[in-house]
Each structure stands twice: as structure tokens, then as C-alpha cells.
Amino acid sequence: MKTVNFVFVMALVAVLSGCCNCHRQDGGATPQEFNYHPDYKAIRVDASRLDRIDSLLQEYVDKGIIPHALTFVAKDGQVVHNKAYGWRDVEKQIPLQTDDIFRMYSQTKAVTTVALMTLFEQGKFQLDDPVSKYIPEMTDQVLVAGGDKEHPQTRKAASPVLIRHVLSHTAGIGGLPGGYEGYATLADYVKKQVQQPLLYDPGTSWNYHPSSDVWAYLVEVISGRSLQEYVDDEVIKPLGITDMAYFYPVEYQDRFVTLYLEKDGKIAPEVMWSGRYPFGDDRRFANGGTGLNGTIEGYARFCQMILNGGVFNNSRILGRRTIEVMSKDQILHTDGAFENFRFGIGFQIYPGEKITWDVVNGASPMVSPGALSWGGMANTDYIIDPKENMIILLYTNRIPDTLVWEKFLNTVYQALE
Questions:
Q1: What DSSP string runs through 37-104?
Q2: What is the pLDDT of residue 29?
Q3: 354-382: per-residue pLDDT in tens?
Q4: Nearest residue to 171 via CA among 158, 185, 188, 183
Q5: What are the pLDDT digits (tens) for 270-284?
Q6: pLDDT digit string, tens, across residues 224-257
């Protein structure tokens, strides 16, 4: 009887352990939840050196350079830093809280990219399928010199626009004059957008942002569901993320961080929403490249899923091999173009160590080659670093950028033993 009990107990322990951690094939931990009581020695982090993060961010707040800052750093799934500095609203002197909601702008892109890639894994499309297979309105014309805005001169593209091009911002698709004004739905906008001549032959260069609405519409066409519904059901909810959305009940307004814009050397409140007004009545139009808002912990869950090879919260969103495909550079580097810049499917990729770092190419050279990154216009930034098995997030809602992100990364990496 004791033997039976022992076997039962050991089996139960194994099951319970499985609920908390898996293991990557390289032996690293793939935790299924965050541990807020880190074992610094086990994960080789010098806790005493983390105070440098506090000093840096508090100094930036005290000098009025940034209104606030919120950190989230997890190594091996153990949260080594998650602190708020400054004010949710400077004028009202409301302190920032760790569960406040930020405008995330282009951090939306990685989430909607993952949504489309879940359909890829279901065999619904191939990366090298022409977009026109799913969106018949897709043009095959490229702009050439001559003509004018009303009567542009074009030629036939050297190759069709592929889904791979769209996901890597190499399609040559441009935005529409006037932006989204006058369009009630994503479908209305994209069907008009893709009829405009391309800026260059697909796959031959890189232009940021406009194609994100096209891949978002592909989610709707291929799944038969709205972008909002699909992202929520297939990515956000399975990861246990709360409070990440395009639109909110009015009572959520008080949890939103005030956005600040630098004017004449000082920061001042500004009304700029990430996508459409999140408390309005018309909630039909959701974008692929902007519009999601959320907490830093929520996006940390998304980052940890990517770091884990596609699984977190005991929910597999993508397969390991899919993450590997997404982490491969998709830019055609000809004639020295984008020499130090790498972009995969959904993420910037930190290149090799022989790099001259600048504003375009990334942040601190402390970041490991192969790490994934991107950020939002109002300075919500993240690093997914497989080499260190670590995610690093810093949130502010302040435009334009300051050098605090680059310096923050230095203070994080210097604490690793």
C-alpha cells in the first residue's frame, strides 16, 4: 500500500511540476507562469546591481525627461524587476501603477502577425502564396518615374506580392492618402489600399507599416472571423492576458496612462490614441499595425510565449519551428542596403556582433545577437533574448524617444553573472 501511495504521490508531483515548467530541447526552462520570487543565485543575476535600474529611471523622472517608467524583466521565467516610477498623470500627481494600461501602438504588429501565423500552421496558406489568391484586388503594378499623383506611371511588377513580403514589410505596399478617415472597416480600407501601385518590386526593399493592415485583413479573409475576435480568442485569452484590447468599457479610462509629447523642450499631455478611440461606439475597425492597448505584464506573457518556442500558460499558440522561421531575416541585402538591419516575420532581429549601433538599427550592444525586438511609437519597448533566456520590457507613453531605453538595457544586462 505504501508503494502504491508513493507512486501516486510521485505521479502527482510530476503532473503539478508540468503545470509550471516545460523544458526546451536545449535544456533551458520554458516556464508556464511567472515566478515573482526569484532565486537570483540559480538564475545567475546579481540582485545588488539591479539598483542601478532604479537610479537611472528615477533620475529621468526627477529631471522631467520622462513622465513615468514601468519595467518588466524576467530570466528563466523569474521576474527580477517589475517596478513603476513617476506618474500616470503628472498634472494630477497620480502615481503610476504596475497594472496601468498603456497605448502600445506598433507593439500590435507582433500580436497580429502571430494571429496570422496560427492559420499558417493550420495549413490555410503558404508564406509564398500570392496575396492576390486571397485578396483579388491586389495590384501587380509598380510606380515608375513620371506622371503625377492623379495619373501615376507604372509597369508590371517583377514578381507578385507574396504573404511573406507583407509580413516582413518588403511588399512595397503604401498607405492611402488621408489615412483611415472615411473607412468604416478594415476590409473597406485594404481593398482600396492594395489597388494602389507598389512603391518597388516586391521583396527588393523595406518600407515600414502599411502592409500590416493587409496581413490583418488576411486574418479575416482566411479565418472568416473579425481581426478583433480572432486575436482575442486565439492569442490573448489562451495566454491568460487580461486588459489587452482595441476597445474598452468607459470605466477603464481611469486606468489609462496619460500620453505626453515633448514641446519646446518640455513634456505636455497629448490626446493621441493608438488606432481608433478605444471608448467610442463604433468598434468595427481594428488595425494590424496599431490599436492594441494593455498592461506590461500582459505583453510580457506574449514575449515569454515567443521565448518559450510558442507556448505559455500551458497554451501552445505556435510551434517551435514556426518561431524559428519567424526569426530568420527576410530582407534582401543588395548594394549595402539595410546592411546592419535585420527583420524577420513580426520582429527585428539583432544581428551579429560587428555592428555600429544607431537609432534605426537598435539599442544597446549588450543585447545578444539573434534577440528579437520591436517597439511602439510612444516608447513601449521589448527584447526577447533566447541566448540569456530573458525578456526585457520598458514602458513609457512619451513621444519622441529618449536614450533611456538604450541605457536601461545596459543596466539590465550588467546584472547578469
A1: S--TTTTTB-GGGGHHHHHHHHHHHHTTS-SEEEEEEEETTEEEE--EEEEEETTTTEE--TT-BEE-
A2: 67
A3: 444 444 444 578 999 999 999 999 999 99
A4: 158
A5: 999 988 999 999 999
A6: 999 999 999 999 999 999 999 999 999 999 999 9
Distance, in Å, from the CA atom of 129 to the CA atom of 167, rounded to the nearest integer, reads 12
Place of cell 500551458: 314
Residue 222: Cβ-neighbour burial (10 angstroms; 0-12, 13-18, 19+) = middle
Side-chain-side CA neighbours of 211 within 13 Å: the count stands at 26
Q: Which stretches of 281-416 are DSSP H helices?
A: 296-307, 320-326, 404-413
Q: What is the pLDDT of residues 45-61, one digit of tens each?
A: 999 999 999 999 999 99
Cis-peptide into 400, omega within 30 deg:
yes
- Whole-number Å distance between alpha carbons of 209 and 289: 7
Q: What is the pLDDT of residue 334?
A: 80
Mean pLDDT estimate for the chain: 91
Pull the grid cell for residue 394.
Answer: 520598458
List residues bridging with 294 in a β-sheet.
102
Give the Å distances, CA to CA, from 182 to 128, 174, 178, 311: 32, 17, 9, 39
CA-nearest of 343, 415, 402 to 171 is 343
